[in-house]
């Protein structure tokens, strides 16, 4: 089948043979095992035939996308991802499509989903949680500087790299908002900020709220506002009603309480989260290796 491609040059860390502008097609890849399934298709491990470069290939069915009227959302996700370069954000390399499917060429994160890892361990120790909090905060500082709000941070959208480093993925709900003010209700129930539930305009502080929810869930094993029904969860979020298990340390309690503030502007800023004594004491952040551009 004939394929078309997006004209996005691949960046640092990719073999020179893969970086050239070219028309990609499915025949260029050896397809391996499935890495995950989504609403519109699946993600597969893949290897580029010439360079043997390993990547993840996200396959999206056009019919499913059209049926849900989310073509614009995918277009926006590709546009946003193509400009992001950060060690804790999953790299987007390129895309192409044929008659029935769209293919996204993405960085392969061998550690898989944080969600599955959390299920396996039930909850994480302080060092691991603090490391993730520092990594996600740093990634979001970068996103917000680019005027991008993610809006759907949750363990299912966080992947783990080769050294266990966090990789923020799935920018399907993200938005490039020059004013950083939005009103759309989106995201996942347990992670929704109070202002989103109330239908008020929201800004990048919805992502900050999610860092607090994530920190709690990693340490405790469940989300702070979890309830039997969606409406009960909404009510708890709206009232910021949650309790810490007795074994959560004072430092972690202090951090989470300062992030989960009902008033968006009073939430602890991301830069302050990174500098919080509990994070500084416990974080074991390792930067992934930096590759040099392959020489011509």
TrEMBL record:
There is a cross-link at residue 154 (Glycyl lysine isopeptide (Lys-Gly) (interchain with G-Cter in SUMO2)). Its EC number is 2.7.11.1. It is an enzyme of class 2 (transferase). It catalyses: L-seryl-[protein] + ATP = O-phospho-L-seryl-[protein] + ADP + H(+); L-threonyl-[protein] + ATP = O-phospho-L-threonyl-[protein] + ADP + H(+). It comes from Pelusios castaneus. Keywords: ATP-binding, Kinase, Nucleotide-binding, Serine/threonine-protein kinase, Transferase. ATP binds at residues 39, 58, 62, 107-109, 156-157, 170. InterPro entries: Aur-like, Kinase-like_dom_sf, Prot_kinase_dom, Protein_kinase_ATP_BS, Ser/Thr_kinase_AS. It comes from the Eukaryota. The active site is at 152 (proton acceptor). Residues 29-279 form the Protein kinase domain. The keyword Lipid metabolism does not apply. Belongs to the protein kinase superfamily. Ser/Thr protein kinase family. Aurora subfamily. One of its GO terms (molecular function) is ATP binding. This is Aurora kinase. The keyword 4Fe-4S does not apply.
